[in-house]
């Protein structure tokens, strides 16, 4: 057999004829004429060099060799069907791999984002490279990664940097330091204190030195420490003062005092960086879109600042997932994507997922929906991929109610917002509503509503 004479079309025609038993039915299924189907079968038989089909009482039946070819053809076509599904998922960013390089301090920032991203896109793999700024700059120059996270991004014609999060720099001291008892300080009062600083090239050090230069001052006593954790411990032990990222401080358990010094906190930001001359994989683009929409990460950042430990630790699923779904709509209402019909069509597909999650959960646990019915709902009616449907079916086997949290939380938040708009009229401020709503942590929406209305 000359395999070069085979084609996918020949195999498709052959499989249909075997399955349907006659050429007329196969021709109708393939939208071909019967003579075309007959010609394709003749070409295939000549390429193999053997008879493949027998006509028995008006029905086409495979010969011994034809039967083996049928299995091989099904295997080949099935593998490429699987590849087509994979290709759709890869292009949609729901599978694949991302290489990310981050500076040391960013290890306090990126993992919560990746955790939320993984819950939504579990088939996307991530390799995370962590190092000091010089090491990450070297990786950037060598184009070793897809995305980078810097607090002080590199410059140059190949750099594409987008600010994604504030990174305030705080001046800290031991809790028993004399300055910790002051309500107001000038930096001149601290100039002769020992300062613990990061290594040359560190973005935190660069920002602090730039600030010192802008103030026309410098430090007279410094000690270099190449670790945020070691700096926190050293400050807590009374070894000196330091300027450190607020994100680093949030993760520590040391007893430290944030000093109220004029000019502090120093304003800084986190930047998501990529190269203009490098094509981003679809999975990396999906992560960029995920970060751009203020869903889980923004909500959890506010929850971590909530004064109630109980509300912070024991989050309500409907509030957490509902906020993520609500933020998708809020972004478009605020002008993201230029208010185009295409963006709203995309949103309605997103929203359909939340609706179908609720239908699926109730139908399986209350109405006894079968796996076949569930996948028909998800694939044929909700436009989800086979892989998404398979994963959703697994989830609904092991959880109940959780899948309803997306729609129920979203509906409650949206209804409460509209009530507030109607009640406050011209005094309603969307930004203030969001900030106050999120300030209560991950509490149930109904509880937050009562707190905001002071009921």
UniProtKB/TrEMBL annotation:
GO terms for molecular function: DNA-binding transcription factor activity; transcription cis-regulatory region binding. Keywords: DNA-binding, Transcription, Transcription regulation. InterPro entries: DUF885 (IPR010281), LysR_HTH_N (IPR000847), LysR_subst-bd (IPR005119), WH-like_DNA-bd_sf (IPR036388), WH_DNA-bd_sf (IPR036390). Coiled coil: none annotated. It holds the Pfam family DUF885. Residues 6-63 form the HTH lysR-type domain. PANTHER family: HTH-TYPE TRANSCRIPTIONAL ACTIVATOR CMPR (PTHR30126:SF5), HTH-TYPE TRANSCRIPTIONAL REGULATOR (PTHR30126). Belongs to the LysR transcriptional regulatory family. This is DUF885 family protein.
């Amino acid at each position: 057999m000359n395999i070069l004479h085979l084609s996918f079309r020949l195999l498709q025609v052959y499989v249909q004829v075997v399955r349907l038993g006659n050429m007329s039915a196969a021709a109708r299924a393939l939208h071909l004429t019967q003579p075309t189907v007959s010609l394709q079968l003749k070409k295939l038989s000549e390429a193999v060099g053997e008879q493949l089909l027998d006509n028995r009482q008006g029905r086409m039946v495979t010969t011994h060799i034809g039967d083996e070819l049928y299995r091989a053809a099904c295997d080949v076509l099935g593998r490429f069907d699987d590849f087509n599904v994979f290709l759709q998922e890869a292009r949609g960013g729901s599978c694949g791999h991302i290489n990310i390089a981050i500076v040391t301090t960013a290890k306090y920032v990126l993992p919560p984002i990746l955790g939320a991203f993984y819950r939504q896109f579990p088939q996307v793999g991530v390799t995370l490279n962590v190092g000091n700024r010089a090491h990450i700059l070297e990786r950037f120059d060598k184009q070793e990664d897809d995305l980078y996270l810097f607090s002080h991004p590199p410059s140059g014609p190949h750099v594409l940097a987008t600010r994604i999060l504030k990174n305030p720099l705080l001046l800290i001291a031991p809790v028993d330091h004399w300055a910790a008892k002051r309500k107001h300080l000038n930096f001149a009062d601290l100039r002769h204190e020992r300062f613990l600083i990061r290594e040359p090239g560190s973005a935190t050090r660069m920002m602090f030195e730039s600030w010192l230069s802008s103030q026309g001052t410098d430090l007279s006593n410094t000690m270099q420490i190449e670790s945020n954790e070691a700096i926190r411990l050293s400050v807590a032990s009374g070894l000196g003062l330091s300027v450190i990222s607020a994100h680093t401080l949030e993760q520590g358990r040391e007893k430290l005092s944030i000093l109220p010094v004029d000019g502090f906190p120093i304003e800084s930001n986190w930047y998501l960086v990529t190269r203009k001359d490098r094509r981003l994989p679809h999975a990396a683009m999906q992560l960029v879109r995920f970060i751009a929409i203020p869903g889980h990460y923004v909500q959890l950042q506010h929850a971590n600042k909530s004064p109630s430990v109980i509300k912070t630790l024991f989050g309500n699923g409907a509030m957490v997932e509902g906020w993520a779904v609500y933020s998708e709509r809020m972004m478009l209402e605020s002008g993201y994507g230029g208010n185009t019909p295409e963006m709203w069509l995309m949103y309605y597909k997103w929203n359909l997922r939340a609706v179908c999650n609720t239908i699926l959960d109730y139908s399986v646990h209350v109405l006894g929906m079968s796996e076949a019915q569930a996948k028909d709902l998800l694939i044929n009616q909700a436009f989800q991929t086979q892989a998404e449907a398979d994963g959703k079916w697994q989830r609904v086997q092991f959880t109940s109610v959780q899948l309803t949290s997306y729609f129920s939380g979203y509906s409650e938040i949206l209804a409460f917002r509209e009530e507030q708009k109607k009640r406050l009229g011209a005094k309603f401020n969307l930004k203030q509503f969001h900030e106050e709503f999120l300030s209560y942590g991950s509490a149930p929406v109904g509880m937050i509503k009562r707190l905001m209305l002071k009921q």
